[in-house]
């Protein structure tokens, strides 16, 4: 029996359902624990909707619910689990309550991985008497498609369990990165926040429409960022001299743009502006069409990455 053959999903909303679909597609036995009344039908319909993408990405058991169980009692749901992915709402007291309920029922050596986007590991650890099994494992929506998982443990975490979780995520196609210390929003959400902040600033200042701002990312730097990160791309942009050459030519202008970046607040007026601007885009393209485009292109891109990496 491998450490992660029997997985329990605590909380199966947007993120937990997507994790569950991936774990099932990889052949694991999955127990879903979520008090929502319609959880079984929602979960089954999600597995169905994710089947085509997961099949395209080569998962043998995509769409199968043969190894799926439901148990809305967290204490019994975790009893046989060898790996637990917690994705309940982002509220510290709720997570603490759940950790207190499950701790006496955990099997020795079980990992409890939290999907939290913004809560910090040290705060979450206060929900345990012995926090060694708890690791931070932050995915990107939808986790059954997006490879990134941000991992973190600290001095109170079992390094053995952290390492085994890392190997597990890698074995199901995830790209893991490690946070060396805790910080609100971890790494990738901070990077998203930086870009979103400036795009809102440009919109508010009337520099461009929201549609054109999104196009500027999707057809420009965003395309490149998906191939390599921004620092490496600038290294390539510096030609033979690499990042040193890039800085020699462009550090001064970049510094002046950095100094000029905006700092808008997400107040109600700004949110209204975003809603109205997005409604204009929706007049041309429905959200369903956008979702379809996103998932189709994501799968095709990931297939190309898989093909390149197995050459
Ligand atoms: N939505 C995202 O884009 C995203 C991305 C990465 C990480 N996260 C993180 O994942 C976690 C879940 O977010 P979400 O967007 O899936 O939330 P969600 O509201 O869609 O789902 C939460 C689910 O947890 C269930 N639940 C509530 N209390 C529970 C309990 N005590 N035991 C078991 N289930 C319980 C709810 O019924 C619901 O189905 C949060 O910590 C969030 O920060 C979210």
Task: Write a concise keyword list for the protein shown above.
2 domains; alpha/beta; 52% helix; N-(1-d-carboxylethyl)-l-norvaline Dehydrogenase, domain 2; Rossmann fold; 8 strands; binds nicotinamide-adenine-dinucleotide; globular; 13 helices; 8-stranded mixed β-sheet; single chain; 311 residues
Estimate percent helicity. 40-55%
Instruction: Let me know the number of strands.
Output: 8
What's the total helix number? 13
Give the number of domains.
2
Radius of gyration: 21 Å
User: What is the fourth-level CATH superfamily of the largest domain?
Assistant: NAD(P)-binding Rossmann-like Domain
- What is the annotated CATH architecture of the largest domain? 3-Layer(aba) Sandwich
- Biggest beta sheet attributes: 8 strands, mixed
Strand order of the largest sheet: 3-2-1-4-5-6-7-8
Basic shape? globular
Contiguous low-pLDDT stretches (5 residues minimum) are: none
Oligomer: single chain
Secondary structure layout:
Elements: E1 6-10, H1 14-25, E2 29-33, H2 39-56, E3 68-70, H3 74-79, E4 83-86, H4 92-102, E5 111-114, H5 121-124, E6 134-139, E7 148-152, H6 159-171, E8 175-178, H7 188-204, H8 210-218, H9 221-225, H10 230-237, H11 242-260, H12 268-284, H13 287-309
Parallel strand pairs: 1-2, 1-4, 2-3, 4-5, 5-6, 7-8
Antiparallel strand pairs: 6-7
Helix pairs in contact: 1-2, 10-11
Bound molecules: nicotinamide-adenine-dinucleotide.
Descriptive account of the structure:
This protein has 311 residues and is an alpha/beta fold. It has two domains: 6-178, Rossmann fold, CATH 3.40.50; 188-309, N-(1-d-carboxylethyl)-l-norvaline Dehydrogenase, domain 2. Helix content is 52%, strand content 12%. The chain contains 13 helices and eight strands. It has an eight-stranded mixed beta sheet. Helix 1 (14-25) packs across helix 2 and helix 10 packs across helix 11 (242-260). The chain is globular. It starts with 5 loop residues before the first strand and ends with a helix. The mean pLDDT is 96. The structure holds nicotinamide-adenine-dinucleotide. Nicotinamide-adenine-dinucleotide is lined by residues 10-16, 33-36, 74, 87-90, 94, 98, 115-117, 138-139, 141.
């Amino acid at each position: 029996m491998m450490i992660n053959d029997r997985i329990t999903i605590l909380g199966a909303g947007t993120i937990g359902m997507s994790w569950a679909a991936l774990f099932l597609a990889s052949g694991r036995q999955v127990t879903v624990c979520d008090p929502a009344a319609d959880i079984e039908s929602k979960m089954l319909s999600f597995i169905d909707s994710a089947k085509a993408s997961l099949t395209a990405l080569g998962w043998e058991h995509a769409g199968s619910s043969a190894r799926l169980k439901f148990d809305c009692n967290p204490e019994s749901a975790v009893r046989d689990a060898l790996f637990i992915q917690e994705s309940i709402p982002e509220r510290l007291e709720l997570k603490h309550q759940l950790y207190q309920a499950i701790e006496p029922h955990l099997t020795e050596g079980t990992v409890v991985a939290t999907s939290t986007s913004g809560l910090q590991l040290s705060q979450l650890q206060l929900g345990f008497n012995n926090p060694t099994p708890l690791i931070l494992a932050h995915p990107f929506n939808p986790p059954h498609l997006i490879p990134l998982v941000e991992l973190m443990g600290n001095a109170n975490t079992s390094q053995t369990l952290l390492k085994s979780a890392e190997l597990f995520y890698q074995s199901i196609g995830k790209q893991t990165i490690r946070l060396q210390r805790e910080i609100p929003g971890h790494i990738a959400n901070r990077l998203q926040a930086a870009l979103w902040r400036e795009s809102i600033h440009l919109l508010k200042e009337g520099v461009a429409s929201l549609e054109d701002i999104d196009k500027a990312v999707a057809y420009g730097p965003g395309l490149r960022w998906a191939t390599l990160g921004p620092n490496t791309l600038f290294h390539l942009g510096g030609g033979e001299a690499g990042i040193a050459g890039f800085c020699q030519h462009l550090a001064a202008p970049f510094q002046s743009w950095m100094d000029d970046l905006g700092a808008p607040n997400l107040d109600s007026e700004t949110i209204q502006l975003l809603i109205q601007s997005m409604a204009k885009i929706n007049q041309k393209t429905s959200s369903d069409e956008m979702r379809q485009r996103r998932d189709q292109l994501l799968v095709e891109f990931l297939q190309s990455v898989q093909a390149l990496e197995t050459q």
